[in-house]
Amino acid sequence: MRPHLHSLAAWALVASTGDLTGVLAANSSGCGKEPTITDGPHTAVANGKTREFIIKLPANYDKNRPYRLIFTFHPLNGSARQVANGDSSTEPFYGLPPVSNNSAIFVSPNGQVAGSVGGMMGWANAGGEDVLFVDAIMEKIEAALCINQDLRFSTGFSYGGAISYALASLGGGPKSPIAFYQQHGTGDQVLPISGARQVRDILLRANGCTPVTPEVTPNGATSTQVVYKGCKEGFPATWVVFNGPHTPAYADAGSVKPIGGPNFWNFLSQFE
Ligand SMILES: *[C@@H]1O[C@H](CO)[C@@H](O)[C@H](O)[C@H]1NC(C)=O
Ligand SMILES: *[C@@H]1O[C@H](CO)[C@@H](O)[C@H](O)[C@H]1NC(C)=O
Ligand SMILES: *[C@@H]1O[C@H](CO)[C@@H](O)[C@H](O)[C@H]1NC(C)=O
To answer: What's the pTM value of the predicted model, to 2 decimals?
Structure first.
C-alpha cells in the first residue's frame, strides 16, 4: 500500500487520503539523524529515470521535530525551479513558506515532457511513473529528514492540481473521502469552472458534506469561501471561488497578496 499523502489539488485542491482521527503520529526514520539533505536540487530514481526535485527546509531545522511534508506541483510547461523560485505567475512554493511558521518542509518535483501535452513538461503519469517518482522522493526525504508521516500534503496549480488529485485518489478513489481545498476562478478559460464544480461535488458526496445551494458566487472583486458542514470527521472540505482567470496569482480587491498560500495554509494547518 502506498503511504498516505494528504493531497491538495488545484486549480487548487487540498486533499487528504488518510483517516486522520485517532492516529498516533508516525515519525520518519530520518528523525534524530543529522540531515543529509539540504535546501536545493536533488534527484530520485523512478522507473529507471533520474529526475530532479527541489527542497526547502525550515529555518533552524531541528532533527528531533517531526515536520509536515508538502508537495507543490508545477503546472503544464512549468518546472520545479519555477515553483521553487517563483515567477510572475506564482510566489515561491505557492506562497506557503512565509505562512508556515517553519513547521513544514517543501518539495517541488520536476514533471516530464514524455506523454505530456504539446512537448511541454507536465504530469501525464504514464504507466504510473509520476506516482513512482513521488514515492521515491518521499522515501529519500523521509530517510534523511524528520517528517510526521501523518502530515503529508500535496498541492499544485492546474496540471499540478490534477496530479495532486490523482495522488489523493490513489489512497481513496472518488467514492472515498479526500479532505480537500479547492480554489477556482469564474473566468477560467483553460479549466472552466463547471468542471471544477463537478469535481468538488464528487468530493463533497464522498466526504458526506452538506452541499450549499444556490451555487455561491464571488462578491465582486472579493473571493467567497465555503467551509462545508456535515463532513465525515477528518475529511474537511473548503471551496473558494473568485472572479478571475486561470492563475494562482489571484488577489482580492485592495490587496496584492495572492489568496492561495494563506488559504491553503489555514486549511492544512487544521491537521496536526
Ligand atoms: C514523534 O516525535 C515526537 C517529537 O519527538 C514525539 O513526541 C512523539 O512521541 C513521536 N511519536 C511516535 C509515535 O513515536
Ligand atoms: C513555455 O515556457 C517557456 C519558458 O518559460 C516559454 O518561453 C514558452 O512561451 C511557454 N510556452 C507556452 C505554450 O506557454
Ligand atoms: C510558531 O511556532 C513556534 C514553535 O516553533 C510557536 O512557539 C509559535 O507560537 C508559532 N507561532 C504561531 C503564530 O503559530
So the answer is: 0.92
Does residue 150 sit within a domain? yes
Contact between residue 122 and residue 190 where contact means Cβ atoms under 8 Å apart: no
CATH number at residue 238: 3.40.50.1820
For residue 14, tell me if it sits in a domain: yes
> Angle 129-144/159-171 helices, nearest 10 degrees?
80
Q: Residue 265's pLDDT is what?
A: 94
Which residues constitute the domain of residue 133? Answer: 7-268
What pLDDT does residue 173 have? 65
pLDDT of residue 18: 41
* Shortest-distance atom of ligand 1 to CA 148: 1
User: Is residue 1 domain-resident?
Assistant: no
Average pLDDT over residues 227-253: 94
Q: Which of 42-56, 141-155, 158-172, 214-228 has the lowest mean pLDDT?
A: 158-172
Residue 139 lies in a domain: yes
125 Cα to the center of ligand 3, angstroms: 38
Number of domains forming the structure of the chain: 1
Q: State the SS3 of 135-203.
A: HHHHHHHHHHCCEEEEEEEEEECCHHHHHHHHHHHHHCCCCCCCCEEEEEECCCCCCCHHHHHHHHHHH
Cα(120) to centroid(ligand 2), Å: 8
Q: What is the CA radius of gyration of the chain?
A: 17
Q: What is the pLDDT of residues 142-178, one digit of tens each?
A: 999 999 988 888 899 999 998 988 887 776 666 778 8
Residue 269, ligand 2, Cβ within 6 A: no
